[in-house]
Amino acid sequence: MKLLLEQGDIIKYAADTIVVSIFEGAKELVGVTSEIDKITGGLVANHIKDHDFDGRLAETLVLHSPAGLSSKHLIVVGLGKQEVFSFAAARRAAAASIREAKELKSQLLATVIQGGKASNLPIESATQATVEGILLGNYEFDRYKTIDRDKREKRKLKEVTIFEPDGTKLAAALAGFKKGKAIANSVLNTRDIVNEPPSKIKPSDLVKAANEIASLSGNITINILDEPKLKKEKYNAILAVASGSQELPFLIHLRYQPNNPKAAVAFVGKGVTFDSGGLGIKPWSAMLSMKTDMAGAGAVLGIFQALAELEAIDQPLAVEVHGIIPTVENMISGKAMRPDDIIETRSGKTIEVIHTDAEGRLILSDALTYANQLKPGYIIDYATLTGAAIKALGRNYSAIMGNDKQLIELVGQASQLTGEAAWSLPLPEEYKFYLESPVADLANVANASSAPDAIIGGLFLQEFVNNIPWVHIDIAGPSWKEDNKDPLSHQGATGYGVMLGIELLGRLIG
Ligand code: BES
Ligand code: ZN
Ligand code: ZN
Q1: Closest ligand 1 atom to the C-alpha of 386?
Q2: Strand, coil or helix: what is 76?
Q3: What is the pLDDT of residues 84-98, one digit of tens each?
Q4: What distance, in Å, lies between the first and last C-alpha atoms of the chain?
Q5: For ligand 1, is residue 476 a contact (CB within 6 Å)?
Q6: Residue 43, CB-side half-sphere exposure with 13 Å CA sphere
Q7: What confidence tens digit (pLDDT) does each residue in 251-299 have?
Q8: Contact present, 269 and 382 (Cβ < 8 Å)
Q9: Count of other CB atoms within 10 angstroms of residue 42
Q10: Which of 253, 297, 254 minimizes the C-alpha distance to 275?
Q11: Cα 447 from chain centroid?
C-alpha cells in the first residue's frame, strides 16, 4: 500500500472512499466534515440527529454514493469526546477508518488528519498518529494464504492519501508523517517476526534478523555470543534451557551509539522461539501459540529498527541503546535440562530447576548479568513470562514491576501516550520466601499453589539486577490478539513494546 501526504482539498480528490471525522456530541460540524455535510444536503448531520451515529471513539458511519461527492463511499469516524482526545485516540480512529475501508474493499482512499483541526494535538502528532493508525490497522499476516491470492491482492487498499488542508502546516505534518511511517514499519516488522511459524524462526533466524537491522545504520553494531562463547563465559542458564533442542542458542547484543548520547539504556528481550515447556511439557492447548515466546526479542528488534529509521529521516534519538536478546528453543530430548537440575549461572548464583517450563527467567538471568556489565543507566526487560500475567490483567495490559519508582512512573506515562496499556504490580520483599531452595541460592518457581506467579517472576529477575534502575514488562497478554476486535491489531502478534520503548527513550532524555 502506498501512503502519501498531500496539501489540498480532499473533496476534489478522485478517491473511491473519503474519510472524515467528528468528535462525540459535537454541537456543530467543523472543517471538511461540515463542508461535506453542506454538499451532501445535510447527510452527516441527519444521521447524527437520528442517533445512527454518535461519534464515539472508533465508531464508524458509512454513507454510500453520497450525493454531490464523486467518491463511492464516505466514512465518518468518531474521535470520541473532545475533552479526552489524545494521540492514542487519533491513532485508534485512523485504524478504525481503515478497517471499514477494507470491509468496503476500497482501493483508493483519501483521509483527513485525525484531530488535525479542532483538537489540542499539534499537527505533527496528529499526522504521526494518523499514519500509524493506517499502517497498523491495514496489517494482516496472510503470506501463507495461497487460495485466491490474486483476488485477495486485488481487493487490498492500493493507495491512501492524507490531506493537510492548511499549507502553512505542511512541514510539521511531513515530519509527523515520516516519524509515523518509521515507527509503524518497525512495529509491523516485529509482528511479522513474531507471527512466523516456529519452524521458520529459530534462534539462528533471530540472529539473522538482528544482523539485518544492524545493517540499517552505521551507528548500530552487533556482537553475537554463539555456543562456544556462551560455554567459555559460563552462560550456563542459557545453555541449560537450550540443551534439549537441536537448535543452537545465542546471545545477541545490538548497540546503538549516536554522537553525544544523553543516557544509556539497555533493553533485554526474551527470545524463546518455541516453548514446549521442556520435560515439564505443556499440554497441547497451552503449547499452541508458543511461537510467540520470542515477542520480547521481537520488541527489542523493533526498537532498533525504529532507531535506525528515525535516524534516516533526521529525527535521531540522542541516546545510547543496548539490545540484549538471549535466544533458545525450549524442547525435549535425552539431553534436555531436568527438573532437580542445579544451574550455576553466569552471575555466580545457583538456581534449582523446579519447573523446566519457567525457562524465560533462566535465560533472562544470564542476559541481565550481561546487561549489568554494560553499566547502563536503565534496564528494561520485555518477556512473555507468565500465564499468570494474562490471568491477572487480560490481553490488553502488560504487567510492569521494577526496583525504581521513577522509572516505573515513566514507563506508565509512555504507555498512556502510545496506548500500549500497562499496569503495575508490586514486588514485595515478603514474597521472596517463595523462591527459597533447600539446595541452591534460588528456586526457579514457587512450589506453592498460592503463589502469585507474575510477581514471583519479577522477584526472580530482580535477583540478577545490580543496583540499576530496572523495569520488567511481562507482555504475555498484550503481545498477542486472539481476535480482530482491536482496529489497531489484527488477530496475531501486536508488536507491543516497540512504540512504548521509543517513547520511553524520548522521555528518558527529554
Ligand atoms: N512462555 C510461558 C508464559 C506464557 C504463557 C506466555 C501464556 C504467553 C502465553 C512461560 O515460559 C511459562 O511457561 N511460564 C509458566 C511459569 C510457571 C511454571 C511458574 C506459566 O506461566 O505457567
Ligand atoms: Zn515456559
Ligand atoms: Zn516461555
Answers
A1: 21
A2: strand
A3: 999 999 999 999 999
A4: 34
A5: yes
A6: 21
A7: 999 999 999 999 999 999 999 999 999 999 999 999 999 999 999 999 9
A8: yes
A9: 13
A10: 297
A11: 32
